[in-house]
Amino acid sequence: MKTKKELKDQYKQMEFPMGVFQVKCTVNEKVLVDNSVDIESKWNRHRMELKFGNHKNKDLQSDWNNYGEDKFVVETLSVLKKSEEENVNYNKELKALQNLIIEERKIENTY
Which InterPro entries does this UniProt record tie to the protein (predicted)? Predict the structure, then answer.
């Protein structure tokens, strides 16, 4: 059995997919484009806020309430690999990547 310290160290060594993703309503094709150093956790946060009815994006919340969870899909648009360099500001890199993707894909129908 592993000690608490060993489990913490093991968790710190884990790598989570980071990148840009979208939450898309399949009814009206509107999307919320977001980024995170841990895509899965960020999506879970969005989903919980939507389920509890307190998401900060009121239009998204309204569509979620009207159409239901099954009318939304999450798609990863781009994954950012961890850099060999130290002191990388991943949040800044992800925001730049998100803006680039929105521009390149001409995403306009957003929440």
Answer: GIY-YIG_endonuc_sf (IPR035901)
Cβ atoms 20, 74 nearer than 8 A: no
Give the span between the Cα atoms of 53 and 41, in whole angstroms. 18
Residue 55 Cα distances to 62, 66, 96, angstroms: 9, 14, 24
Tell me the pLDDT tens digit for each residue of 32-41.
999 999 999 9
Domain 18-105 has CATH 3.40.1440.10: yes
Mean pLDDT of 93-111: 95
The strand pair at 72-80 and 31-36 is best described as unpaired
Does residue 11 carry a pLDDT above 70? no
Q: Look up residue 93 and give its amino acid.
A: E
The confidence score (pLDDT) of residue 102 equals 96
**Tokens 């803006």 correspond to what residue?**
99
Q: What angle do CA 6, 11, 14 make, to 5 degrees?
A: 130
Strands, E, within the chain: which ranges?
Answer: 18-25, 31-36, 72-80
